[in-house]
């Protein structure tokens, strides 16, 4: 049984015989689907500090818990696409880019260090490696190519194969996340100070015209959409967390 009030207060009750079968995750996923339709932006679940099963479920989903005595209030932001009232192409493009930037971080929340560094697919990429790659994508397209900055190692360490995907022993989750957030912030700053018709400053392809900022941002958008789908698959294979 699941409950969702208009204020976002929620509760999930799973029969003993069904526990451990993924029912709780499926119920929480359903709540996240229903919440936007009711105007709910944050789910709030209350439990006790000794309810290990509930806390594990909420942590996996990326909820932030606040403990007061033996009571725990866990808050889980509800993913929401940009407003359907947006009509300006530039606003819509920037809004969807930010939606996917947050979606990537959301898909990584709740994963342990081992899970972040473990590949679930034959190609060998890891969730943390994906975040590192996307940070380099932001850096390379907006700073290196569009702005024309002299960026050190836009593809990562040249001595390491597929460096922007590689997570070394010296790489920390906090460090890669901070690097990613820094590049996203710089990308927003650069895009905000330019017109969509402006063209990249650095372009080495001689058989193609220099792309516009609009093309660059749409290229980033499609890359984010594809990679978010990849992370959806990795989460489902890893711990059963679905969608959103």
From TrEMBL:
Transmembrane segments: none annotated. Residues 1-91 form the N-acetyltransferase domain. InterPro entries: Acyl_CoA_acyltransferase, DinB/YfiT-like, GNAT_dom, MST-like. Gene3D superfamilies: 3.40.630.30, dinb family like domain. Pfam families: Acetyltransf_1, MST. Coiled coil: none annotated. This is Mini-circle protein.
């Amino acid at each position: 049984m699941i409950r969702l009030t208009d204020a976002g207060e929620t509760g999930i009750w799973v029969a003993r015989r069904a526990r451990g079968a993924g029912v709780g995750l499926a119920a929480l996923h359903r709540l996240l689907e229903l919440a936007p339709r009711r105007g709910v932006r944050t789910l709030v679940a209350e439990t006790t500090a000794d309810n290990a099963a509930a806390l594990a479920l909420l942590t996996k989903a990326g909820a932030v818990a606040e403990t007061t005595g033996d009571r725990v209030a866990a808050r889980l932001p509800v993913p929401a696409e940009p407003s359907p009232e947006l009509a300006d192409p530039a606003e819509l493009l920037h809004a969807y880019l930010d939606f996917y930037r947050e979606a990537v971080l959301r898909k990584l929340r709740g994963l342990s260090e081992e899970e972040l560094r473990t590949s679930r697919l034959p190609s060998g990429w890891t969730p943390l490696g994906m975040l590192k790659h996307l940070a380099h994508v932001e850096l390379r397209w907006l700073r290196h190519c569009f702005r024309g900055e002299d960026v050190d190692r836009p593809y990562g360490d040249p001595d390491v194969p597929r460096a922007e995907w590689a997570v070394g022993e010296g790489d920390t989750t906090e460090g890669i996340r901070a690097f990613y957030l820094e590049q996203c912030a710089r990308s927003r700053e650069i895009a905000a100070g330019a017109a969509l018709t402006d063209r990249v400053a650095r372009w080495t392809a001689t058989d193609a015209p220099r792309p516009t900022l609009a093309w660059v941002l749409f290229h980033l958008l499609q890359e984010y959409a594809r990679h978010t789908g990849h992370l959806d698959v990795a989460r489902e294979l890893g711990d059963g967390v679905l969608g959103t």
